[in-house]
Amino acid sequence: MTDATSVPADRHARLAGHVFTLLVLGAWAVWGLSVQSYQMPGPLDILRRLADFFTDWRELRHMFISFGHIIGAVALSFVVGSACAFLAFYLPRTRLMMHGRLTPFLNSFPGIGWIMLAIIWLGVNDLTVVFVISMVLVPFAILNMREGLDAIDAELMEMGNSFTRSRWRIFRTLVVPSLYPFVFATLRVSFGVAWKVALTAELFGGNTGFGYLLNLARNDFDTPLIFGIILIIIAFVYSTDRWVFVPVQRRLARHHGPA
Amino acid sequence: MARPDAPANRPGNTSGRARPGLAERGLAEGLIVAALFGWWALSRDMPSYILPGPLEVARATGQLFTSPEMLSHTLASTLRVVAAVLLATVIGTGLALLPERFPILRVIVHERVQPFLNSFPSVGWAIVASIWFGPSNGTTIFVETAILVPFCLVNVSTGLREIDREMIEMARSFTRNRARIFFKVTVPLLMPYIVAALRIAYGVGWKIALVAELFGTESGLGFLMQRAQTQSQAGIVFATCFAVVIVFIAGEKLVIDPLARRYRPA
Question: Is the pTM of this model over 0.90?
Answer without folding.
Answer: no
